[in-house]
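Record type: monomer structure entry
Structure origin: computed from sequence
Chain ID: A
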Amino acid sequence: MYQTDLNIIAREAEEREDENYTFRSWLKMKDSKPLDRLVHEINDKVSASIDCTKCGNCCKTLVINVTQQDVISCSKHLNLTKEEFKEKYIEESQQGEMYINTIPCHFFADKKCTIYGNRFKDCRDFPHLHKPGFQGRLLGTLMHYGQCPIVYNVLEELKVRLRFR
Protein backbone atom coordinates (compact mmCIF):
# COMPACT_ATOMS: atom_id res chain seq x y z
CA MET A 1 0.00 0.00 0.00
CA TYR A 2 2.77 2.46 0.93
CA GLN A 3 6.12 2.93 -0.77
CA THR A 4 8.97 1.68 1.43
CA ASP A 5 11.71 0.99 -1.13
CA LEU A 6 14.42 3.52 -0.23
CA ASN A 7 15.84 3.48 -3.76
CA ILE A 8 12.49 4.45 -5.28
CA ILE A 9 11.88 7.06 -2.56
CA ALA A 10 15.32 8.63 -3.13
CA ARG A 11 14.84 8.69 -6.91
CA GLU A 12 11.37 10.24 -6.65
CA ALA A 13 12.66 12.80 -4.15
CA GLU A 14 15.15 13.97 -6.77
CA GLU A 15 12.50 13.99 -9.50
CA ARG A 16 10.06 15.93 -7.30
CA GLU A 17 12.46 18.46 -5.83
CA ASP A 18 10.88 21.42 -7.64
CA GLU A 19 7.37 20.14 -6.96
CA ASN A 20 8.14 19.78 -3.26
CA TYR A 21 9.60 23.28 -3.08
CA THR A 22 6.37 24.61 -4.62
CA PHE A 23 4.31 22.42 -2.25
CA ARG A 24 6.22 23.85 0.74
CA SER A 25 5.43 27.43 -0.36
CA TRP A 26 1.81 26.49 -1.00
CA LEU A 27 1.46 24.86 2.43
CA LYS A 28 2.73 28.00 4.16
CA MET A 29 -0.44 29.77 3.02
CA LYS A 30 -2.77 27.19 4.60
CA ASP A 31 -4.50 27.58 7.96
CA SER A 32 -2.14 25.88 10.41
CA LYS A 33 -4.61 24.18 12.78
CA PRO A 34 -6.59 22.24 10.15
CA LEU A 35 -3.29 21.42 8.41
CA ASP A 36 -1.86 20.02 11.66
CA ARG A 37 -4.99 17.91 12.20
CA LEU A 38 -4.77 16.50 8.67
CA VAL A 39 -1.03 15.77 8.95
CA HIS A 40 -1.62 14.04 12.31
CA GLU A 41 -4.44 11.95 10.85
CA ILE A 42 -2.37 10.89 7.84
CA ASN A 43 0.72 10.29 10.00
CA ASP A 44 -1.22 8.05 12.39
CA LYS A 45 -2.39 5.91 9.47
CA VAL A 46 0.96 5.77 7.67
CA SER A 47 3.01 5.20 10.85
CA ALA A 48 0.77 2.30 11.86
CA SER A 49 1.46 0.64 8.50
CA ILE A 50 5.24 1.15 8.27
CA ASP A 51 7.60 -0.65 10.63
CA CYS A 52 10.55 1.65 11.27
CA THR A 53 12.61 -1.23 12.58
CA LYS A 54 12.61 -2.75 9.08
CA CYS A 55 14.22 0.40 7.69
CA GLY A 56 16.43 2.28 10.14
CA ASN A 57 17.57 4.73 7.50
CA CYS A 58 17.31 7.60 9.96
CA CYS A 59 19.78 5.80 12.28
CA LYS A 60 22.16 5.35 9.37
CA THR A 61 22.02 8.86 7.95
CA LEU A 62 21.00 11.52 10.49
CA VAL A 63 22.73 13.48 13.22
CA ILE A 64 21.01 12.50 16.45
CA ASN A 65 20.41 15.13 19.12
CA VAL A 66 20.80 13.97 22.71
CA THR A 67 19.26 15.51 25.84
CA GLN A 68 20.66 15.47 29.36
CA GLN A 69 17.86 13.04 30.29
CA ASP A 70 18.94 10.77 27.42
CA VAL A 71 22.48 10.73 28.82
CA ILE A 72 21.19 9.79 32.28
CA SER A 73 18.86 7.06 30.98
CA CYS A 74 21.29 5.51 28.51
CA SER A 75 24.28 5.61 30.81
CA LYS A 76 22.26 3.77 33.46
CA HIS A 77 21.03 1.26 30.87
CA LEU A 78 24.61 0.60 29.72
CA ASN A 79 26.01 0.56 33.29
CA LEU A 80 28.25 3.53 32.57
CA THR A 81 28.73 6.78 34.43
CA LYS A 82 27.36 9.85 32.66
CA GLU A 83 30.94 10.96 32.07
CA GLU A 84 31.93 7.60 30.54
CA PHE A 85 28.87 7.62 28.31
CA LYS A 86 29.54 11.17 27.12
CA GLU A 87 33.21 10.48 26.51
CA LYS A 88 32.47 7.38 24.46
CA TYR A 89 29.32 8.40 22.52
CA ILE A 90 28.67 12.15 22.64
CA GLU A 91 29.99 15.23 20.93
CA GLU A 92 29.11 18.55 22.51
CA SER A 93 28.91 21.90 20.73
CA GLN A 94 30.28 25.11 22.21
CA GLN A 95 26.67 26.03 22.99
CA GLY A 96 26.26 22.84 25.04
CA GLU A 97 24.11 20.94 22.54
CA MET A 98 24.85 17.21 22.49
CA TYR A 99 24.90 14.80 19.55
CA ILE A 100 25.82 11.18 18.96
CA ASN A 101 29.41 11.34 17.70
CA THR A 102 29.06 8.95 14.74
CA ILE A 103 26.87 8.41 11.72
CA PRO A 104 25.49 5.79 11.66
CA CYS A 105 24.55 5.76 15.31
CA HIS A 106 26.65 3.56 17.60
CA PHE A 107 23.50 1.77 18.72
CA PHE A 108 22.28 0.76 15.26
CA ALA A 109 22.80 -2.88 14.26
CA ASP A 110 20.88 -5.14 11.85
CA LYS A 111 18.44 -2.31 11.01
CA LYS A 112 17.49 -2.06 14.68
CA CYS A 113 18.28 0.08 17.67
CA THR A 114 20.15 -1.94 20.27
CA ILE A 115 18.89 0.41 23.03
CA TYR A 116 15.36 0.74 21.64
CA GLY A 117 13.62 0.90 25.04
CA ASN A 118 16.03 3.67 26.06
CA ARG A 119 16.45 5.34 22.68
CA PHE A 120 16.97 9.07 22.59
CA LYS A 121 14.05 11.51 22.63
CA ASP A 122 14.98 12.75 19.16
CA CYS A 123 14.74 9.16 17.91
CA ARG A 124 11.39 8.53 19.61
CA ASP A 125 9.96 11.72 18.11
CA PHE A 126 11.30 11.30 14.57
CA PRO A 127 9.96 12.25 12.05
CA HIS A 128 8.11 14.76 14.25
CA LEU A 129 4.89 14.61 12.22
CA HIS A 130 2.79 14.00 15.34
CA LYS A 131 3.73 17.39 16.79
CA PRO A 132 1.86 20.67 16.33
CA GLY A 133 3.38 23.37 14.16
CA PHE A 134 3.91 21.36 10.98
CA GLN A 135 4.31 24.52 8.89
CA GLY A 136 7.26 25.62 11.01
CA ARG A 137 9.06 22.36 10.25
CA LEU A 138 8.42 22.15 6.50
CA LEU A 139 12.04 22.62 5.44
CA GLY A 140 13.28 19.93 7.82
CA THR A 141 10.44 17.61 6.89
CA LEU A 142 11.20 17.98 3.19
CA MET A 143 14.87 17.31 3.87
CA HIS A 144 13.78 13.85 5.08
CA TYR A 145 11.35 13.22 2.21
CA GLY A 146 13.90 11.20 0.25
CA GLN A 147 15.17 9.29 3.28
CA CYS A 148 12.15 8.31 5.37
CA PRO A 149 9.26 6.19 4.08
CA ILE A 150 6.90 7.73 6.63
CA VAL A 151 7.69 11.31 5.60
CA TYR A 152 7.51 10.40 1.92
CA ASN A 153 4.12 8.69 2.22
CA VAL A 154 2.59 11.30 4.52
CA LEU A 155 3.56 14.11 2.17
CA GLU A 156 2.39 12.26 -0.91
CA GLU A 157 -0.97 11.56 0.70
CA LEU A 158 -1.16 15.16 1.92
CA LYS A 159 -0.72 16.33 -1.68
CA VAL A 160 -3.62 14.13 -2.75
CA ARG A 161 -5.90 15.07 0.15
CA LEU A 162 -5.28 18.79 -0.37
CA ARG A 163 -5.65 18.41 -4.15
CA PHE A 164 -2.24 19.92 -4.70
CA ARG A 165 -1.58 18.16 -7.99
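Annotation 1: The longest strand covers residues 90-92.
Annotation 2: The chain has two domains: 6-56+127-161, 63-115.
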